[in-house]
Amino acid sequence: MAFDIDMIKKVYEDMTERVDKAREVVGKPLTLSEKILYSHLWDGNPNTAFVRGKDYVNFAPDRIALQDATAQMALLQFMQAGKPKVAVPTTVHCDHLIQAKQGAVPDLKRANETSSEVFDFLASVSNKYGIGFWKPGAGIIHQVVLENYAFPGGMMIGTDSHTVNAGGLGMVAIGVGGADAVDVMAGMAWELKFPKLIGVKLTGSLNGWTSAKDVILKVAGILTVKGGTGAIVEYFGEGAKNLSCTGKGTICNMGAEIGATTSTFGYDDSMERYLRATDRSDIADEANKIREYLTGDDEVYASPETYFDQVIEINLDTLRPHLNGPFTPDLATPVGELGPKAKANGWPLKVDWGLIGSCTNSSYEDLTRAASIAKQAVDKKIKPKSDFGINPGSEQIRFTAERDGVLKIFEDLDATIFTNACGPCIGQWDRSDRKGDEKNTIVHSFNRNFSKRADGNPNTHAFVGSPEMVAAIAISGRLDFDPMNDTLLNEDGEEIKLDEPHGLELPPLGFDVKESGYVEPLEDGSNINITVSPTSERLQLLTPFTPLGNNITGAKLLIKAFGKCTTDHISMAGPWLRFRGHLDNISNNMLIGAVNAFGKKTNFIKNQLTGEYGGVPDVARAYKAAGVKTIVVGDHNYGEGSSREHAAMEPRHLGVAAVLVKSFARIHETNLKKQGMLGLTFDKESDYDLIQEDDTINFLDLDAFAPDKQLTLEFVHADGSKDVIKTNHTYNQAQIDWYNEGSALNLIKKENKA
């Protein structure tokens, strides 16, 4: 039985009327993305044809998902909103705060001990406000959502960039910052600029070593890490129908790595099979009644160039397996070409670890395909040359895979089965075989491979591939191994060629689980009191931000970030995850990973008040103590990566008034706006080069801050010379109101008191 089946029935009941009306208003056939967007308008039935990439639109999402690291700050904000209960179905999933080290049992035990304060806080707040709670060990948020909450045609937001995974079940599921989630939890509309549409036509079918992961690795190579910004990617064609539901989820999941708002697929037989296999036949029955509304119109897919802003076509028959990396998920290389490329670039060929799992590739199908390769190593006496780590996606996956003997195959290779959690994918990995900054290579089936992400080592070269390719590469121990053409020597000295992988879309005996880890909230939690110790290192009640005002003068340049500056650079994960509920403590990691354009070092910037150099947070605190506002300058796609709003809240907390860059990643720009900051872009990108280390900044016309009106900044250099720079912004009047009140949350509280 599905969660919230009555809500889903209501969505489907409204959808037919609203899609018909939207088709009439727009005056043409609709893509699936448009059907879902227009059927989830806050005002109900459509009466306006929105302009893609321009119009801000209010939506009414069906549900919200929060993971434990981001849930802390989101719930701390929601507690200030003055609401007795969440307005839409919401869940919290404890998957980020579990460090991978020894194996599932000891690692989970240690996490429950070291993070008990946080887990207890999340459980209590969930109980008080009617939020479903998934305990530590229950699984990775996106796999659990796919198994339990995702449904075709729905709209969901989540405080994790990989919320988009649910597009594998035909949703429009979008990653947001905690403040966005709080709006919806408080019963308000959720605002989004109406996305552009990228269509990806898939023909043929996967074969041999090629997997669904290779589709998105190929797309990432085509579009790059910013090519999907502001767009929904919609996959269609016979090739799309030939993919499994969890394979579709993998493709949508890693759409976050091209900056896409989300990705999705039309409802088809594979989704129906998955719904029924996960005990949600009631949803499948309802979806079948309106099947034509849960995919794009036939005319759209027949002439996609007419209806999408951009169209890409990929033939699955000829698609080759890829490994993407290192250091960026869009550096795509077909497996057979990786050897020469690695040698030319000095990438270490020896592979130390193969890691399988994460929210991207931890389904039953993923594990069985990788296990089919691992079993060959066991049966053919091939001793793996690399260490193995496995993260099952959920307790249901783990229990079923153990029952069916899948996990034993990995254990026979001496693999470590970690907890059903994120683990190494987000830096929660106590890696025993490496110390310092030794140059090395790992391969994994995760989604991101930024510098330092997995293990904190800037010289770990991480490559992204499918679970089966990761297994083959790890068994060989060499990055240049091509399982389609190369052989391996077994213990008897025989040359062995690995057979092609094979897997099972769904378990033949069905899914099973003894203890899912789900806790239903109380119907009435009004008597629950939430307490946070004022001396806690992990949790801190929030103090509302003070408005920055419309007369900012004498501001100082904090840092001019050089090159790629992701949310990992702005607010690292890994060991810092323990402070995600304590804004002041976690602010000690603010921008410590960003490369300073002056000197090309990390966490080493000039304090203009003293002339001395120090760490970014320390210098920022000195400016704040002196009452001096600061600005941050950055390059393209600033804030790429995670949805973590800490990357906006930390600068806000430490006195940063504005972030001025060449371009933003979508979620980060919104997070800055929500926290009452200025997110600006250079009108002329070359003006980035004018910014000097000792600059003082004056905002010349902030008192006239208005939509579609440029802001002018004066940069006063140390020698007294000046450069006046025009900047652009995308604030509408509602977002300017957030700025004027100090944050979006301040405005919510003000309106609730009115």
TrEMBL record:
<dbReference type="GO" id="GO:0003994">
    <property type="term" value="F:aconitate hydratase activity"/>
</dbReference>
<dbReference type="GO" id="GO:0005829">
    <property type="term" value="C:cytosol"/>
</dbReference>
<dbReference type="InterPro" id="IPR036008">
    <property type="entry name" value="Aconitase_4Fe-4S_dom"/>
</dbReference>
<dbReference type="GO" id="GO:0006099">
    <property type="term" value="P:tricarboxylic acid cycle"/>
</dbReference>
<dbReference type="InterPro" id="IPR050926">
    <property type="entry name" value="Aconitase/IPM_isomerase"/>
</dbReference>
<keyword id="KW-0479">Metal-binding</keyword>
<dbReference type="InterPro" id="IPR015932">
    <property type="entry name" value="Aconitase_dom2"/>
</dbReference>
<dbReference type="InterPro" id="IPR001030">
    <property type="entry name" value="Acoase/IPM_deHydtase_lsu_aba"/>
</dbReference>
<feature type="domain" description="Aconitase A/isopropylmalate dehydratase small subunit swivel">
    <location>
        <begin position="557"/>
        <end position="684"/>
    </location>
</feature>
<dbReference type="InterPro" id="IPR000573">
    <property type="entry name" value="AconitaseA/IPMdHydase_ssu_swvl"/>
</dbReference>
<keyword id="KW-0809">Transit peptide</keyword>
<dbReference type="InterPro" id="IPR018136">
    <property type="entry name" value="Aconitase_4Fe-4S_BS"/>
</dbReference>
<dbReference type="InterPro" id="IPR006248">
    <property type="entry name" value="Aconitase_mito-like"/>
</dbReference>
<comment type="pathway">
    <text>Carbohydrate metabolism; tricarboxylic acid cycle; isocitrate from oxaloacetate: step 2/2.</text>
</comment>
<keyword id="KW-0411">Iron-sulfur</keyword>
<dbReference type="InterPro" id="IPR015928">
    <property type="entry name" value="Aconitase/3IPM_dehydase_swvl"/>
</dbReference>
<keyword id="KW-0408">Iron</keyword>
<dbReference type="GO" id="GO:0046872">
    <property type="term" value="F:metal ion binding"/>
</dbReference>
<feature type="domain" description="Aconitase/3-isopropylmalate dehydratase large subunit alpha/beta/alpha">
    <location>
        <begin position="35"/>
        <end position="477"/>
    </location>
</feature>
<keyword id="KW-0816">Tricarboxylic acid cycle</keyword>
<dbReference type="Pfam" id="PF00694">
    <property type="entry name" value="Aconitase_C"/>
</dbReference>
<dbReference type="Pfam" id="PF00330">
    <property type="entry name" value="Aconitase"/>
</dbReference>
<comment type="similarity">
    <text>Belongs to the aconitase/IPM isomerase family.</text>
</comment>
<dbReference type="InterPro" id="IPR015931">
    <property type="entry name" value="Acnase/IPM_dHydase_lsu_aba_1/3"/>
</dbReference>
<keyword id="KW-0456">Lyase</keyword>
<dbReference type="GO" id="GO:0051539">
    <property type="term" value="F:4 iron, 4 sulfur cluster binding"/>
</dbReference>
<protein>
    <recommendedName>
        <fullName>Aconitate hydratase A</fullName>
        <ecNumber>4.2.1.3</ecNumber>
    </recommendedName>
</protein>
